[in-house]
Design goal:
single chain; 397 residues; 21 helices
Length: 397
C-alpha cells in the first residue's frame, strides 16, 4: 500500500513515516512460557491444556481453540483455557473477543499476569491507550522491572501525546539496559512526533551505532526523513541511497531522494526518482504533480502539462490545476491563468499561495491595482502571512 503524501507540504504521513516499527516485544502468550503449572488440574484437562498451547505455538489456532473449548465445557472458569482462548483470538486479530476472554479470566483470577498482559495488548491494538496503560500499571505492581511492559507503557503514553511520562519510562528502561533497542527507537519516535528532529536524530543515530551492519532499512529512511524535516537535504541523501541499495523499489527511499533533490533545487535529479515511483504506481496523482512541478521549474512546459493532465485524469487535484495556471502564466497566457487561479481561490479562500500567484499574474498583465485588491482581500479574512504582507507592501510602495 502506497503511503499518503500531503500534497502541499510533501510530508509522508507517519503511518507514512518509513520509520522503525513502534511495537516493542511481541506480546507473549502463555504457550511461550515452558514453566506454566498444570499440576493441580484433572489429568484429562491437563492434557487438553498442554495440547492446546502446543497447537497455539504451531499457529494451528482453530485446533487450539477446540482444545480450550473442551476444557471450558468441563470447567467454565479454567484460567489456562480462558487465557488460551484469549491468546488464540489475539493471534487472529480478534482483539475484542480476546479482551472478553482475558476479562473473564481476571474476574476469577485477578493476579493472572498473562491475562493482564493480553488484555492490555488488546486495548493497545484497539487504540484504547488509556485503558492499556491502566492494565500495564497493574502488571507492574507484580513485576516493576519488566522491560517488555515498560516499553509498552512508554509507547502508549507517546500515543496519547504525554511526552513527559513517555520519556520518563523510556529512560527508566535505558537505566536497566543502556542498549535496549525498543527504548532507543521509541525515544526517536517520541521526539519526531513532537517535531524535535535533532533529538530524534540523536537516538536513531545511536541505534545505527548499536546495530551496525544489521541496521534495519526503516532506520535509514527514518534518519533521512529527519534531515528532510531539518532541510539538511544533502545529509539525508546518503541514508536514502543506502536504503535503495537494500531495496531498489522502496517507496520511502525513492520519495526521500526525490524530495531531497527538490529541496536542493536539483530538479533534474528529483525527476529520476519521481519517475521511478510512477513506474510502480502510474496513477499516484501526488507524485504526478510533483514531477509536473519539476518539469515546470526546468521550463519543460509540454512535459509539465502532460503530467498535470495525467493527475487530473485520475481525479480533480488542486495542485495540478495550480501547476497548469503557473505554466500558463509563464507562457504569457495571463487571462487563462487568472481564471484558473480565481476558481481555486473560490474553493480555498485562505490559501495564501493562490493569492500570491494571482497577484503576480495580474501585475504581469498590467493590473497592479487589482493585484493589491486581491492581497488586501486575503488579509481582510484575518489571516496573516509574511509572504502576502511583503508582496503587498512592495506593490503599494
Amino acid at each position: 500500500m502506497v503511503p499518503k503524501v500531503n500534497e502541499e507540504t510533501g510530508q509522508v504521513t507517519f503511518d507514512e513515516q518509513a520509520v522503525m516499527p513502534e511495537d516493542s516485544f511481541p506480546a507473549p502468550v502463555m504457550a511461550d512460557n515452558p514453566g506454566y503449572d498444570e499440576e493441580h488440574e484433572v489429568s484429562g484437562v491437563s492434557e487438553l491444556s498442554k495440547k492446546g498451547y502446543h497447537l497455539l505455538k504451531e499457529n494451528k489456532i482453530s485446533d487450539a481453540m477446540d482444545c480450550f473449548g473442551q476444557i471450558l465445557v468441563v470447567d467454565e472458569n479454567n484460567n489456562y483455557a480462558l487465557v488460551g482462548m484469549g491468546d488464540a483470538a489475539r493471534k487472529r486479530g480478534s482483539f475484542k473477543d480476546a479482551a472478553d476472554y482475558y476479562r473473564r479470566c481476571l474476574n476469577f483470577h485477578p493476579g493472572n499476569n498473562y491475562a493482564l498482559f493480553g488484555l492490555a495488548d488488546c486495548y493497545k491494538a484497539l487504540n484504547q491507550y488509556h485503558k492499556a496503560i491502566e492494565i500495564w500499571e497493574q502488571y507492574l505492581i507484580h513485576d516493576d522491572k519488566n522491560i517488555t511492559v515498560l516499553t509498552r507503557v512508554a509507547d502508549a503514553y507517546r500515543k496519547i501525546r504525554d511526552f513527559k511520562h513517555s520519556k520518563e519510562v523510556y529512560l527508566r528502561v535505558l537505566e536497566m539496559d543502556a542498549r535496549n533497542p525498543y527504548a532507543i527507537i521509541g525515544l526517536g519516535h517520541l521526539h519526531y512526533d513532537f517535531k524535535e528532529y535533532r533529538d530524534a536524530l540523536y537516538y536513531w543515530e545511536k541505534m545505527m551505532e548499536i546495530s551496525r551492519e544489521s541496521v534495519d532499512i526503516r532506520m535509514l529512511t527514518s534518519i533521512g526523513n529527519c534531515h528532510r524535516k531539518l532541510k539538511t537535504f544533502s545529509e539525508g541523501v546518503p541514508y536514502f541511497e543506502k536504503a535503495l541499495e537494500r531495496d531498489f523499489y522502496n517507496f520511502y527511499a525513492l520519495f526521500g531522494l526525490a524530495d531531497c533533490y527538490r529541496g536542493m533545487n536539483q530538479q533534474h535529479r528529483s525527476l529520476e526518482y519521481w519517475n521511478r515511483i510512477l513506474e510502480q504506481d502510474p496513477r499516484n496523482k501526488v507524485i504526478l504533480t510533483r514531477a509536473g512541478d519539476a518539469y515546470r521549474v526546468l521550463n519543460d512546459f509540454d512535459k509539465a502539462i502532460e503530467y498535470y493532465q495525467r493527475a487530473l485524469n485520475i481525479e480533480f487535484d488542486t495542485y495540478a490545476v495550480l501547476g497548469l495556471a503557473v505554466v500558463a502564466k509563464a507562457q504569457g497566457k495571463f487571462t487563462e491563468a487568472v481564471e484558473s487561479l480565481r476558481r481555486l481561490i473560490q474553493q480555498d479562500p485562505k490559501n495564501y499561495r493562490f493569492h500570491i500567484e494571482l497577484a503576480d499574474c495580474l501585475v504581469k498583465k498590467g493590473d497592479k491595482r487589482e493585484a493589491i485588491e486581491v492581497l488586501s482581500e486575503f488579509q481582510k479574512q484575518g489571516v496573516r502571512n509574511v509572504f502576502v504582507s511583503d508582496l503587498l507592501e512592495k506593490l503599494k510602495s
